[in-house]
Every structure is written in C-alpha cells, then in structure tokens.
Design goal:
- This protein has 106 residues and is mostly helical.
- It has four helices and no strands.
- It has helices spanning 2-23, 34-53, 55-65, 68-103.
- Helix 2 packs antiparallel against helix 3 (55-65).
- The longest helix has 36 residues, at 68-103.
- It is flat, with a radius of gyration of 23 Å.
C-alpha cells in the first residue's frame, strides 16, 4: 500500500514537471517546418474525409495533387515559406539584440 502511494506520487510529480515543458513551445523555438506541416495536415484530413464519402472523387483529388503544375506550386510555396521563416528568425534575433542592448542595457 505504501509502495503504491509512493509510486503514484512519483508519477504525478514526474508528469507535472515534464508535460508543461513538452507542450509549451515558444514562438522563438519553433521549427521552420511547422509552417509547412499545417497545410499538409489540413489536406490530409480533407482527403481522408472525401475518401470516406466518395473514393472516385478522392482519386481525382490525388491525381490533381500529383500533377506537375500543382507539384511545382507546392515546391515554390515550400521555398518561399522557408525563406520567409529565415527572415523572420533573423528579425527576431535583431529584436532580441535590440532589447538586450538598448532597453535592458546588457
């Protein structure tokens, strides 16, 4: 009985310290690929929903997405998103440096 209570308390303490660290992610620490994961996830959910209703239409969507023009557009979007993300990271670094030097006086 005492061992199980100790185990439960240890588990609660472990989860209470690790879960907030995993779930809380600052905007400064986000990976560049997070920007690209959102549209891909939405498209995947949409495809799955359409596939449940009509496999014929889902096959048409799959063929359309794999067409050369759509693939080229997706590649260009990926390049531009990566470029914008890098520029945003550089801007954040400049703001941090400005904050530390001008405002805080470090």
């Amino acid at each position: 009985m005492l061992q199980s209570r100790a185990l439960v308390i240890a588990l609660i303490l472990l989860l209470s310290t690790t879960l907030p660290e995993v779930q809380s992610k600052s905007i400064f620490e986000k990976d560049r690929r997070d920007l690209l994961a959102i549209p891909e996830t939405i498209a995947s959910y949409f495809y799955e929903a359409v596939n449940k209703v009509s496999p014929k239409i889902s096959q048409f969507l799959l063929d359309t997405v794999q067409s050369p023009s759509v693939v080229a557009a997706r590649q260009r979007f990926a390049r531009e998103a990566a470029r914008v993300s890098i520029m945003f990271e550089q801007l954040i670094e400049k703001i941090k440096n400005l904050w530390y030097t001008s405002v805080l006086g470090y």
